[in-house]
Design brief:
The structure holds two protein chains of two kinds. By secondary structure, chain A is an alpha/beta fold. Chain A has a single domain, classed as Amidase signature (AS) enzymes (Alpha-Beta Complex), CATH 3.90.1300. The longest helix of chain A has 27 residues. The two termini of chain A are about 15 Å apart. In chain B, a hairpin with a 2-residue loop joins strand 1 and strand 2. Chain B has a two-stranded antiparallel ribbon with strand order 1-2. Chain B is mostly helical. Helix content of chain B is about 30%, strand content about 5%. Chain B has a domain of about 40 residues. Chain B: It comes from Struthio camelus australis. Chain B: This is GATC amidotransferase. Chain B: It holds the Pfam family GatC.
């Protein structure tokens, strides 16, 4: 908790649940003394992205629409963690309603990448005056689960929950040097995860190593009667082997992921990674996913359409912000939504409604659904031809400085940054970003592995082998002086 | 081909969200332009995909009441309520027409 306080300038947490966390920790200690821990997660501190409902603790989605909203129930994944004795430290910051790829567009302000304050990054930046450096050079976490990624990366929690609709867990994982797992759609319950795109959303897991991700996955996966989109199959939690043989594997390198804008550094790392597998005896082949470049456009239409529907529930009547307008129901709804949502959210709602108009439905929405099938089929074809795992970059570049990031608008940024992660959500496949190496600027770069549906064990096994090979360095966080900054004062303890 | 004011007005009615300013309208224009790239793809004979789980059965659980009786909890989050009712302003009154509404579109 004190580490959270001393790293408050990162703005990773929206709410710190100090009292309840201490109580949970106390009870966990009692259980350990009795020799009766609830499981391997008993007493382990975790953080949860602020778009998961948490009973008694504010859930805001970083939006004015839900500021002050105290949920009466826990999301299934939160409940599962608490049932295992995990200690919920708090709710982490994000882009408003998880719309964005920088964790910069929420009402609580942007999240700062802990690596901005690492020795590794500072060594590589031009020497200016010390404080001037930090204020203008800090880099983004990526998004939208930036708070969760920053929390794990800065050691304030053991694991964190994010969400992944277009790459929102893998993108910040890559930028913050942590492991980001996007499970197969249908494996983990979405009950209580405030929805963005019902057909693509999944809860994401952020940890410092692959073994930890497997542990958390083990406690979260499985059918939930409260979420009809979870599959019925029994999930068997697994431990990853320590000795892994990759020589029997076929690794696919999709050529379309050599996308415009991919930095030469990351291209080189990607190539080096492929060589690692080759040298270990695996078969490494180039493959093609021809519709990759349409994935972002397709996502744009399907996402805005589902958002238009999902955001309709926010009308001020039953929960959340309510405007003072009383003339009529419709005008109250309109005023509430005008005041409660930011530009990004409003923009997506309006776009979505446009694509869903009768005159546009066939040409945009249905068309996008057809293109989605083509994208999903690309993966089916490649996996059906003997490829076990795909290896791709996660992001086009390392994390950019905040001052540079905000020069472009949210939609442009999302379209650029989601290019390598989005197609996976279209197809519902599992994927994981593994921290691979540091860039020339001293910032983390991650590579992505994509697996067959519901084959998380194989995916994580390969990821663990890779993690062992690359030996990604630990972040060297300098002793940071307390930043006196008014925008951080929102961070509060829940009593 | 720009979106007509009539359509913009219609969208504001449907979404109950406003464009706010010229930037908002421009945002929609760009979004449509961006989406138009979809038409480059040949989707002849392709079925639309609703869900990646389309090959599986959707199961229904038993129609048994397993939880409830949480009226107080649920009402806690509402700003305006009376007894066990959520209070809404009068319904059946449509949003004022473009000319009478306080909307940026009026100027167009």
């Amino acid at each position: 908790l004190s580490l959270i306080r001393s790293t408050a300038f990162l703005n990773a947490y929206v709410t710190v649940a100090e009292e309840t966390a201490l109580k949970q920790a106390e009870e966990s200690e009692k259980r350990y003394r009795r020799g009766q821990p609830l499981g391997v997660l008993d007493g382990i501190p975790i953080a949860v992205k602020d778009n998961f409902n948490t009973a008694g603790i504010e859930t805001t989605c970083a939006s004015n629409m839900l500021k002050g909203y105290i949920s009466p129930y826990n999301a299934t994944v939160v409940q599962k963690l608490l049932d295992q004795g995990a200690v919920l430290l708090g709710k982490t910051n994000l882009d408003e309603f998880a719309m964005g790829s920088g964790s910069t567009d929420g009402i609580f302000g942007p999240v700062r990448n802990p690596w901005s304050y690492s020795r590794q990054y500072k060594e590589k930046t031009l020497p200016k005056s010390h404080s001037e450096n930090e204020e203008s050079n800090w880099v983004i976490t990526g998004g939208s689960s930036g708070g969760s990624a920053a929390a794990v990366s800065s050691f304030t929690c053991f694991a964190a929950l994010g969400s992944d609709t277009g790459g929102s867990t893998r993108n910040p994982a890559a930028h913050c040097g942590v492991v980001g797992l996007k499970p197969t759609y249908g494996l983990i319950s979405r009950h209580g995860l405030i929805p963005l795109v019902n057909s693509m959303d999944v809860p994401g897991i952020l940890t410092r190593c692959v073994d930890d991700a497997a542990v958390v996955l083990g406690s979260l996966a499985g059918h939930d009667p409260k979420d009809s989109t979870t599959i019925q199959d029994t999930f068997k939690p697994f431990e990853l082997p320590n000795w892994i043989d990759v020589s029997k594997l076929c690794i696919g390198i999709p050529k379309e992921y050599h996308a415009p804008g991919l930095s030469s550094e990351i291209l080189a790392l990607w190539s080096k990674a492929a060589d690692l597998f080759k040298d270990a005896g695996a078969k490494v082949i180039e493959v093609s996913l021809p519709h990759t470049r349409y994935s972002i456009v397709c996502y744009h239409v399907l996402c805005t359409a589902e958002v238009a529907s999902n955001m309709a529930r926010f009308d001020g009547l039953e929960y959340g912000y309510r405007a003072d307008m009383n003339k009529s129901t419709e005008s109250m709804y309109a005023a509430t939504r005008r005041e409660g949502f930011n530009d990004v959210v409003r923009g997506r709602i309006l776009s979505g409604n446009y694509f869903l108009l009768k005159q546009n439905y066939e040409n945009y929405f249905i068309k996008a659904q057809k293109v989605r099938r083509l994208i999903a089929n690309d993966f089916v074809n490649v996996f059906g031809s003997g490829v076990d795992i795909l290896l791709t970059p996660t992001t086009l570049t390392d994390a950019v400085p905040y001052m540079e990031f905000i020069k472009e608008d949210n939609r442009t940024r999302s379209a650029q940054d989601d290019i390598l992660t989005q197609a996976v959500n279209m197809a519902g496949l599992p994927a994981i970003s593994i921290p691979t190496a540091l860039s020339k600027r001293g910032l983390p770069v991650g590579l992505q592995f994509i697996g067959h549906s519901f084959q998380e064990k194989q995916l994580l096994t390969v990821a663990k082998w890779f993690e062992k090979q690359v030996k990604f360095p630990m972040i060297q966080l300098e002793e940071v002086k307390r930043h006196e900054c008014s925008i951080f004062q929102h961070q509060k303890s829940v009593t | 081909e720009t979106v007509t004011v009539a359509v913009l007005d219609h969208l504001e009615h449907l979404a109950l969200v406003d464009f706010r300013n010229a930037e908002g309208v421009e945002r929609l224009q760009k979004a449509i332009q961006f989406a138009d790239q979809l038409h480059e793809v040949n989707t002849e004979g392709i079925q639309p995909m609703d869900s990646v789980l389309e090959d599986r059965c959707l199961y229904l659980r038993e129609d048994d009441v397993t939880e409830g009786n949480c009226t107080k909890e649920l009402l806690k989050n509402a700003r305006e309520k009376i007894e066990e009712y959520f209070v809404a302003p009068p319904g059946n009154i449509p949003l004022p027409k473009l000319e009478e509404r306080d909307t940026f579109l009026q100027g167009s």
